[in-house]
Every structure is written in C-alpha cells, then in structure tokens.
Hints:
Layout (H helix, E strand, L loop, with lengths): L4 H16 L3 H21 L1 H12 L3 H29 L1 H18 L6 H17 L3 H11 L2 H12 L1 H18 L3 H22 L19 E3 H4 L8 H12 L3 H31 L4 H26 L4 H17 L1 H4 L6 H13 L4 H12 L1 H33 L3 H18 L9 H10 L1 E3 L2
Antiparallel strand pairs: 1-2
Helix pairs in contact: 2-6, 2-7, 2-9, 2-10, 3-4, 3-13, 4-5, 4-6, 4-7, 4-12, 4-19, 5-6, 5-10, 7-8, 7-19, 8-14, 8-18, 9-10, 9-14, 12-19, 13-14, 13-18, 13-19, 13-20, 14-17, 14-18, 15-17, 15-18, 15-20, 18-19
Subcellular location: Cell membrane
GO molecular function, one term: transmembrane transporter activity
InterPro entries: MFS (IPR011701), MFS_dom (IPR020846), MFS_trans_sf (IPR036259), Proton-linked_MCT (IPR050327)
Amino acid sequence: MTIPAAAADAATSTQARRSRRPHRAWSVAAVILGALVAAAGFRSSTGALLEPLESEFGWSRATTSGAVTANLVIYGITAPFAAALMERFGLRRVVSLALVLVAIGSGLTTVMTSPWQLWLLWGVFVGVGAGAMALVLGAIVANRWFVESRRGLVTGIFSAAGAAGQLVFLPGIAALAAGPGWRYAALVVTGAALLLVPLVLLVVRDRPVDLGLRPFGAQPGDVLDEPATRHTGSQVGPAALAVRTLRESMRSRTFWILFGTFWICGWSTNGLIGTHFIPAAHDHGMPQTTAAGLLALVGVFDLVGTIASGWLTDKVDPRLLLCGYYGFRGLALLFVPALLGPEIHPNLFIFIVFYGLDWVATVPPTIALCRRHFGVARSGVVFGWVFAAHMVGAGVAASYAGWVRQSTGDYFTAWLTAGGLCLFAALACLAISKSPELGSWNAEGEDAEVGAVA
C-alpha cells in the first residue's frame, strides 16, 4: 500500500514537532525532585524544633532526641519496602499516600501534649511518609526513565534534593519557631505536602512505556533494562520481594560493606550534624537562626558537590570516590570542637563549605555500585536496604549524641566518634570488589528481566 505524499509529510512533521519537545522524563524528574526536596525538608525540620519543644513542654534532650531517632530509623526501614511497593502499585499511588501521611503527622503535632504523641507523629507518620520519598525514589526514577550513561548525573541531581530541602525549609522553619512559634512551622510542612499531591497525580507516570516512549537517551533498536520496559514483581508481594532481595544480597561481601559504610554515612550526616549541629552551636553561644543558616549553607554547597559526584560517578571508579569522600569527612569532623563559637569565623566557614560539598556525595557512587553488583532490576530494592542502614545509623547517632550531651555537658566525644567511624569507612571501601561477586545470580536476573523496545 502506497502512503500519499501529503500524509507522509504530515506524519513526518508531527514526529519532528514531538522530537523538539522536552522529553517527558524531565517533567517526571522535576516533580519527583520537588517531592524529594520536600521530603528532605520535612525530615530536617526536626533539628530546628528540638529546643522550642523542650522549652514549652519541659522535655529532656534525651526525650526529643529519641523521637528523632524513631523518625530516622522508621524513615530508613521504610525505604526498601517503599521500593517494592512502587514496583507493585506504581510511583503515583505510593508518593501521593506518602505526602498525605507527612501532612497528617506534621499537622497533628500542633495539638500534641505528651512525648508518646511526638514519637508517634514524628516517628511513624512523618517517618513513613518521608521515608517513602527518600533517595530510593530518585534511584528508581533514574533507572526507569534514563539510560545507563545518564543515570549518574541524574542520580546526583536527585541526591542534591536533600540539600535543597534544607536550603528551602530549614531557615524558614527556624525563623517561624523563633518568631510566631513552632506550630506555625509544623503547619507550613503540612501545607507544602498537600500542595504536591495534585502535581504528582497529574504529571508522574511509572515508566516511559506507559506513554509509548523510550527512556531519555535511548535510540531505536537499543536493548533496554527491565525497569524501563515493563512492570516487574506483580506476582510477588512487596514485603516478600523486599525480604527475598535482602536475603539474596546478604551473600555478597560488597553488600555488607555498602551497608556498613552507609550506616556510618547516616551517623555523620543526618544523625549528628543534621540533628545536633544547631543545638551544639547554640551551646557555644551562637544564635539558633544563625546556626540554622549555616546548616542551610551546607545545603547550598551540597547541591554542587552531589551533582558533581554524579558526574564523576559516570567517569571514575565509584570505590575510589567513596574512599575519598569518607576520608575527608572523617578528618573534617575531628576539627569541629575547635571551630564552634558565638560568631562565624573563617575556619568555621571553610568547614561548612567542605562538609557541604561532601554531605551526600556518597549517594551516586553507592547507587552505581548497587547497580553494578546486583543488576538494574534489583538495584532499587537493594539500595533501599542500604539506605535503611544509613537512617538506622543516623537514628543511633541522634540518640548517642543526645546522651553524650546530657551526660557530659557537650558534644566533644560525639564529634570524635563520628570522625573515627568515617576514617574506618574510607578504608573499608577499598575492600569492595571491582566486579560482581554473585556473577551467576546477577546474570540470571538480568537475562530474565531484559526486554527490547523496537
């Protein structure tokens, strides 16, 4: 059958116009980036609210730190199950429900009267909601909507959302807590979460194939990884998928190294600096709003550092990057006790810049190693478990540092402990094997879960 020339020209013109439009992957990525920014802001706001809560209710630092610990641990443990839920029920449903949970948890804190209510609302509601929108979400979207050669940079951008969350939310939350009151700050979090729900429902789709598209960067005839082509895990419950993936991953030495080093990463970032930097700086005479501004500045430089780390991950051995990141972080933490004071001086500013560049620069190479050793199809859930270790480490650090402060009157021991752990993590990363240890398992999974898009 011969196609009329006019019809052929019209079809060609339509395809040309479509090719000039931005790929839908960037719209999905933009909304997911917004959700990740908000989730990071929701979680990091707890550090600015510790002292206002203690002042109003007379609660101890151990009590409020315990609630933060519950938040961090549940936030982390949620990640692998959220990844499995996304495989089963889709991104839109899981992310929308997560935003609603955050809104409920934050909103109800305004009427709480007892510590157990703080633990329930911060720990369970905000912890589960924010945890379902953690870095695992960014890893899944990068795997599904972008080809392998673009994933490192995209993962770096998603990872930087944590910094942006601090940058956008933390100074405002601290100012509201110091001015009108912490309840206004909690209501801002509630409103921001609810505003994102319709955007997620309207824009986000699970996979490019749902719209008849290829992942961004794919060419006609390319063989594509499973996450980009069709749904998986539909015959396996989310909990069973998460647990089975953990059981299989535990046979790998690399998994345990990534698990342990990311535990230390969480200890030295969200758990210690993210939770206790503002109170520690205030102990040395610095106003809370100034300390919150410095923590937000960490977020500014983290945007640069994490995106750069994503770019480097596409070009440099991820093991060497992790070794450098943890090593320099450990050395920086050892100097913190000598840097804090009532005013911002040059050495403290240098620390803020350096620590910001290194804050979550560990994420892109860690995700890359999960893909390399466990396959693209499983990497989201595997990274979910590694990320769970990150937040459990953060939770332990939040309680440990609070206990150190209450027992000794300062954070000196907490800073030295974190520095030593980071130096140990730097050495441990050198023991990660260059090629996958579970070659047969990895290959079997990949062969079974690769599809071609014509």
